[in-house]
Amino acid sequence: MAFTLYSLLQAALLCVNAIAVLHEERFLKNIGWGTDQGIGGFGEEPGIKSQLTNLIRSVRTVMRGKKKNEWNTLKF
Amino acid sequence: MNEPHPSPPAASKRRIPVSPPGMADPHQLFDDTSSAQSRGFGAQRGPGGLGYPAAAASPQEAFLADPVSNMAMAYGSSLAAQGKELVDKNIDRFIPVTKLKYYFAVDTMYVGKKLGLLFFPYLHQDWEVQYQQDTPVAPRFDINAPDLYIPAMAFITYILVAGLALGTQDRFSPDLLGLQASSALAWLTLEVLAILLSLYLLTVNTDLTTIDLVAFLGYKYVGMIGGVLMGLLFGKVGYYLVLGWCCVSIFVFMIRTLRLKILAEAAAQGVPVRGARNQLRMYLTMAVAAAQPLLMYWLTFHLVR
């Protein structure tokens, strides 16, 4: 039973990092999960896909913080 | 005993009455730290530092007459008061103490009835939580309200029973207790996070708070304890029987409780009930309820051989 709190913390950190590094232009737009592709409807029901895209965008914003401009110039 | 002792003579004189180890009266501990004769920080704290009142009268007077130690005591007590103030001011930022107090407002009748409900939820008719002017009624007055007392006690008892089970099989070592506790807590945290994520993705507008979720998910420890104890007494057959019964009970309990919290919102808002959305919420409720028996088995099967 090696499932400890520390391994949970590690797994959570790796998952959040994985969500944060999904590239907006190279990847998400190609699979239709870009942030400007789904937020058309202001109806009552956002739907799972738009909730997911919002979540990915929020995680990216929070994790990248103030250095967004530098990320754009690095161009990995 | 006095000569080789490195501490000052006043302290070593005081150590005489308590030289037999473990003879300190537990009441002495509490009385001494709250009374005016307390020593504050410094060398006087420790297992040998508490004297019996009869013998301590003269060494304490001699100690207090010394002006330097007087000052030191005053400084120490003011430092302690400052620290206490700081903690009191900031504790509300990290742990919502007032909200937690609601979950521990239980009494014996409530605990007894709730335990009965956890083992036999089939005859209970009304699962709705009563409200009193927009706030839920304290658990003491409503058996349907979630509380944190039973889950906390059940968790600690589970750790102890796990230690007992390991001990009867000669597999016990102290760090295994910590491992069991950490493992159970990690699964609980994972469950809470998964359910919160699902509630967010399905845009369920519910008044189910995180602490409520922790309370509901903590009720399974009661069934786990029952299963392991029966397993210790009657072997694998008893374990499987009781665990099976508790699994079904927890499944029914969770479904009936969560249905009111997760699915009732759709009807309460007056939105026409559309099939797809309510279906997803029903799936979520079933998934949460089904995860309980699985985890109950996973966390206990290795304890019963």
Automatic annotation (TrEMBL), chain A:
<keyword id="KW-0472">Membrane</keyword>
<dbReference type="Pfam" id="PF08571">
    <property type="entry name" value="Yos1"/>
</dbReference>
<keyword id="KW-1133">Transmembrane helix</keyword>
<protein>
    <recommendedName>
        <fullName>Immediate early response 3-interacting protein 1</fullName>
    </recommendedName>
</protein>
<keyword id="KW-0653">Protein transport</keyword>
<keyword id="KW-0732">Signal</keyword>
<keyword id="KW-0812">Transmembrane</keyword>
<dbReference type="GO" id="GO:0015031">
    <property type="term" value="P:protein transport"/>
</dbReference>
<dbReference type="GO" id="GO:0016020">
    <property type="term" value="C:membrane"/>
</dbReference>
<feature type="signal peptide">
    <location>
        <begin position="1"/>
        <end position="18"/>
    </location>
</feature>
<dbReference type="InterPro" id="IPR013880">
    <property type="entry name" value="Yos1"/>
</dbReference>
<comment type="similarity">
    <text>Belongs to the YOS1 family.</text>
</comment>
<keyword id="KW-0813">Transport</keyword>
<comment type="function">
    <text>Regulator of endoplasmic reticulum secretion that acts as a key determinant of brain size. Required for secretion of extracellular matrix proteins. Required for correct brain development by depositing sufficient extracellular matrix proteins for tissue integrity and the proliferation of neural progenitors. Acts as a regulator of the unfolded protein response (UPR).</text>
</comment>
Automatic annotation (TrEMBL), chain B:
<keyword id="KW-1133">Transmembrane helix</keyword>
<feature type="transmembrane region" description="Helical">
    <location>
        <begin position="213"/>
        <end position="233"/>
    </location>
</feature>
<dbReference type="InterPro" id="IPR005578">
    <property type="entry name" value="Yif1_fam"/>
</dbReference>
<dbReference type="GO" id="GO:0000139">
    <property type="term" value="C:Golgi membrane"/>
</dbReference>
<keyword id="KW-0813">Transport</keyword>
<keyword id="KW-0812">Transmembrane</keyword>
<dbReference type="GO" id="GO:0006888">
    <property type="term" value="P:endoplasmic reticulum to Golgi vesicle-mediated transport"/>
</dbReference>
<comment type="similarity">
    <text>Belongs to the YIF1 family.</text>
</comment>
<feature type="transmembrane region" description="Helical">
    <location>
        <begin position="179"/>
        <end position="201"/>
    </location>
</feature>
<feature type="transmembrane region" description="Helical">
    <location>
        <begin position="280"/>
        <end position="299"/>
    </location>
</feature>
<keyword id="KW-0256">Endoplasmic reticulum</keyword>
<feature type="region of interest" description="Disordered">
    <location>
        <begin position="1"/>
        <end position="45"/>
    </location>
</feature>
<protein>
    <recommendedName>
        <fullName>Protein YIF1</fullName>
    </recommendedName>
</protein>
<dbReference type="GO" id="GO:0005789">
    <property type="term" value="C:endoplasmic reticulum membrane"/>
</dbReference>
<comment type="function">
    <text>Has a role in transport between endoplasmic reticulum and Golgi.</text>
</comment>
<keyword id="KW-0333">Golgi apparatus</keyword>
<dbReference type="Pfam" id="PF03878">
    <property type="entry name" value="YIF1"/>
</dbReference>
<dbReference type="GO" id="GO:0005793">
    <property type="term" value="C:endoplasmic reticulum-Golgi intermediate compartment"/>
</dbReference>
<feature type="transmembrane region" description="Helical">
    <location>
        <begin position="239"/>
        <end position="259"/>
    </location>
</feature>
<keyword id="KW-0472">Membrane</keyword>
<keyword id="KW-0653">Protein transport</keyword>
<dbReference type="GO" id="GO:0015031">
    <property type="term" value="P:protein transport"/>
</dbReference>
